[in-house]
Amino acid sequence: YVDESGELVGFDIDVGVEVARRLGMRAEFSLSLFTELIDRLQNDEFDVIIAMMSATEERRAFVDFTDSYVESGNVLVARQDDDRFAELADIAGHRVGVAAGTTFETLARSVDGAEVLLFDDFQAYIEALIAGDVDVIIEDELTALYNIQQRGLPIKITSRAYETQGAAIAVKKGDHELLEALNRILAEMRADGTFTEIYVKWFGAAPRF
């Protein structure tokens, strides 16, 4: 996210900076709608996607993924005083905020009667939740934990994690040289503790490898 000084910060930012350093390069970041990431990668607007992107079979048709660098799941998130959403079925008949083009949208649309409202990014639908414009959101567990623990937002996780998946770095289809280099670096970062250090900084707990 963008901090008060206008700097782009976050877990994936720190991972990207360290990966680039070990490649002997300097990371440059480009903000993008999630739905545009793969198209922009294919159009050579950037070289990798580091955006907590789940390595789904559908996406593998368009990009190649590294080994997973973090595991997480999709959770229901509600306002602190709202206890209505313990199970996925509970979103039926309610306004559900999700980011367009994500696994969150797919999960929300799997529930008959859920009114699915699409947003461009997390900040937009978290603000809608806090303001009462949506009743519940579906979000990545780690992102939700960070915003609760570190940013102190008045929200809470109300469900178990659904569809736990590995997030990976995406590269252009067939870019085997870059893919191998990234996998080597991710393995080194796990082995020497750098990855755990970054993870604990943002999420306050050790990662699940």
Q: How is this fold's topology laid out?
A:
Blueprint: H1 11-22, H2 37-42, E1 48-49, H3 57-60, E2 63-65, E3 70-79, E4 95-99, H4 103-109, E5 115-119, H5 122-131, E6 136-140, H6 141-149, E7 155-157, E8 162-167, E9 170-172, H7 176-191, H8 194-203
Parallel strand pairs: 4-5, 4-6
Antiparallel strand pairs: 1-9, 2-9, 3-6, 3-7, 3-8
Total count of strands: 9
Query: In terms of per-residue confidence, which ranges show pLDDT below 50 for 5 or more consecutive residues?
Result: none
Profile the largest sheet.
6 strands, mixed
How much beta, percentage-wise?
15-25%
Radius of gyration: 17 Å
Notes on the protein architecture:
This protein is α+β, with helices and mostly antiparallel strands. It is built from 8 helices and 9 strands. The strands form 2 sheets. Strands 3, 4, 5, 6, 7 and 8 form a 6-stranded mixed β-sheet that branches. A 3-stranded antiparallel β-sheet has the order 1-9-2. β4, α4 and β5 form a beta-alpha-beta unit. The chain is globular, with a radius of gyration of 17 Å. The mean pLDDT is 92.
What are the main properties of this structure?
35% helix, three-stranded antiparallel sheet, 209 residues, alpha+beta
